Structure to design on (121 residues):
């Protein structure tokens, strides 16, 4: 899908998403609105979002380790949560395969607004 606004918009939205996720783990609303504007189909939207945040989190990892955010305690909690995360991802994948675009987009808009509201304080 063509990106709204071209290369400059991708740079601005990508930078804004990267910055907001680094300082507040709040890049989701920015990426959701941009990917909706790109008119990505359900699976492309979800896949692109997952890859974007995977790569951003890889970049953030050394900073998180040096800040003490990644330590033995958080790694053990990650290990405990991993089965639930994997099960949820598989369930989400099945749901995404059945999700109609006309249902998906309003849900994403509503969830984006809900998730952005606490950021306005």
């Amino acid at each position: 899908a063509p990106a709204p606004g071209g290369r400059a918009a991708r740079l601005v939205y990508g930078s804004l998403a990267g910055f907001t996720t680094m300082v507040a783990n709040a890049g989701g609303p920015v990426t959701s609105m941009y990917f909706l504007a790109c008119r990505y189909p359900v699976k492309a939207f979800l896949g692109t979002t997952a890859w974007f945040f995977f790569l951003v989190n890889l970049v953030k990892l050394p900073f998180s380790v040096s800040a003490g955010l990644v330590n033995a305690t958080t790694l053990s909690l990650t290990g405990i949560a991993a089965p639930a995360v994997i099960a949820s991802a598989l369930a989400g994948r099945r749901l995404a395969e059945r999700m109609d675009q006309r249902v998906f987009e309003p849900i994403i808009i509503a969830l984006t607004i809900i998730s952005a509201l606490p950021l306005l304080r």
In short: The helical segments are 6-24, 28-37, 42-66, 72-98, 101-116.
